From TrEMBL:
<dbReference type="InterPro" id="IPR036979">
    <property type="entry name" value="CM_dom_sf"/>
</dbReference>
<dbReference type="InterPro" id="IPR045865">
    <property type="entry name" value="ACT-like_dom_sf"/>
</dbReference>
<dbReference type="GO" id="GO:0009094">
    <property type="term" value="P:L-phenylalanine biosynthetic process"/>
</dbReference>
<comment type="function">
    <text>Catalyzes the Claisen rearrangement of chorismate to prephenate and the decarboxylation/dehydration of prephenate to phenylpyruvate.</text>
</comment>
<feature type="domain" description="Chorismate mutase">
    <location>
        <begin position="6"/>
        <end position="100"/>
    </location>
</feature>
<dbReference type="GO" id="GO:0004664">
    <property type="term" value="F:prephenate dehydratase activity"/>
</dbReference>
<dbReference type="InterPro" id="IPR010957">
    <property type="entry name" value="G/b/e-P-prot_chorismate_mutase"/>
</dbReference>
<keyword id="KW-0057">Aromatic amino acid biosynthesis</keyword>
<keyword id="KW-0963">Cytoplasm</keyword>
<dbReference type="GO" id="GO:0005737">
    <property type="term" value="C:cytoplasm"/>
</dbReference>
<dbReference type="GO" id="GO:0004106">
    <property type="term" value="F:chorismate mutase activity"/>
</dbReference>
<comment type="pathway">
    <text>Metabolic intermediate biosynthesis; prephenate biosynthesis; prephenate from chorismate: step 1/1.</text>
</comment>
<keyword id="KW-0584">Phenylalanine biosynthesis</keyword>
<dbReference type="GO" id="GO:0046417">
    <property type="term" value="P:chorismate metabolic process"/>
</dbReference>
<keyword id="KW-0028">Amino-acid biosynthesis</keyword>
<keyword id="KW-0413">Isomerase</keyword>
<dbReference type="Pfam" id="PF01842">
    <property type="entry name" value="ACT"/>
</dbReference>
């Protein structure tokens, strides 16, 4: 043992020199990649023109990240390696054209966290007060893409997002799945034992109900517009030593300088929210895709049965079915359906054609890569 200890001072400088050399190589290769990205932008502008050029290609990025994970041999995990490449790609894309991404705000929400996960940190973030404002921001061209929540594994579908697709021509260009971890947060100068009120979004309060019942049964729970708003209120109250707490995530904790009293307090450890990326472009097949449809069914016996049978006959896997009022006439409904595959795939085309023969309206909301990270 003493011999091995004596060798450590001799080997550490060598290892550090090796790391420095590797870092230099990595840096040179990243800059070489960045220069290639700049060349890609020049070629696109020359071939497509300023008005028609599309810099962000969701299918291309999904393919690159999948290959990164497939060839990864460790010791870094697949997702960790993909996150590194995600940020490299984000920085390189920003050299081509910085992207403005609208999201359901304010700053510090899980939706912002999802936007950063999907696009990387080299974007211009644009927080919106409501989901329909995110859609309008993208429709107007003020933002290149928008990110909105669509469903949570514990609390179910976000109806406002589904309803927004009825009156828009925007396409779904991607999806993000974000594991939701809630923390109980206070200001640094507050004694957690003095907390009398806990602020958070109503869904977060619901997702932590059992934990709150067990550990904070006497604290009053107050629903606010978002977790980030709850964190902001706690941060401001901390200046006056008012003993309140918030339930929010890591990004809000960092943004507002709060302290974690308890971490990961959600009742279900697999609590996950799915987000959609909306934009104006159609996305080409990536090899592992999902398609979303909006369907208005005819008011006739067996209408839903015949719609669903089309998926079975063509061997297409339907992954989600939601029903919402059509707002056209009383007791009239529209269906939102997700299925595996791209609408250009032969089997998926057959399904869509059968649905069009049975339904009064069939609209492809988008085909997009299945979430990679």
């Amino acid at each position: 043992m003493s011999d091995s200890i004596q060798t450590i001072p001799d080997t550490l400088p060598l290892l550090r020199d090796r790391i420095d050399a590797i870092d230099s190589q990595i840096q040179a290769l990243i800059n070489e990649r960045a220069r290639c990205a700049q060349k890609v932008a020049e070629v696109k502008l020359h071939e497509q023109g300023e008005e028609a050029v599309v810099f962000y290609r969701p299918e291309r990025e999904a393919q690159v990240l999948r290959r990164v994970m497939e060839r990864n041999e460790g010791p870094l995990g697949h997702e960790e390696m993909a996150k590194i490449f995600r940020q490299i790609m984000s920085s390189c894309l920003a050299l081509e054209r910085p992207m403005r991404i609208a999201f359901l705000g304010p700053e510090g929400t899980f939706t912002q966290q999802a936007a950063l996960k999907h696009f990387g940190a080299s974007i211009i973030s644009s927080p919106m007060a409501a989901i329909d404002e995110v859609f309008r921001e993208v429709e107007s061209g003020a933002a290149h893409y928008g990110v909105v929540p669509v469903e949570n594994s514990t609390e179910g579908v976000v109806n406002h997002t589904l309803d927004s697709f009825r009156d828009t021509h925007l396409k779904i260009c991607g999806e993000v799945e974000e594991r939701i971890h809630h923390h109980l947060l206070v200001s640094p100068n507050i004694d957690p034992a003095d907390v009398t009120h806990i602020y958070s979004h109503q869904q977060s309060l619901a997702q932590c109900r059992a934990w709150l019942d067990r550990y904070w049964p006497h604290a009053e729970r107050i629903a606010v517009s978002s977790n980030a708003e709850a964190a902001r209120l706690v941060s401001e109250a901390g200046m006056s030593a008012k003993a309140i707490a918030a339930i929010a995530g890591d990004i809000a904790c960092e943004l507002y300088g709060l302290v974690k009293v308890s971490a990961n307090i959600e009742d279900r450890p697999d609590n996950t929210t799915r987000f959609l990326v909306v934009g104006k472009q159609d996305v080409e097949p990536s090899g592992c895709d999902k398609t979303s449809l909006l369907i208005s069914a005819k008011n006739e016996p067996g209408a839903l049965y015949h719609l669903l049978a089309a998926f079975d006959r063509n061997g297409v896997d339907m992954t989600r079915l939601e029903t919402r009022p059509s707002l056209v006439s009383r007791w009239d409904y529209v269906f939102y359906i997700d299925f595996v595959g791209h609408h250009q795939d032969k089997a998926c085309q057959s399904v869509i054609e059968e649905l069009k023969a049975r339904a009064s309206e069939v609209r492809v909301l988008g085909s997009y890569p299945v979430a990679v990270l």
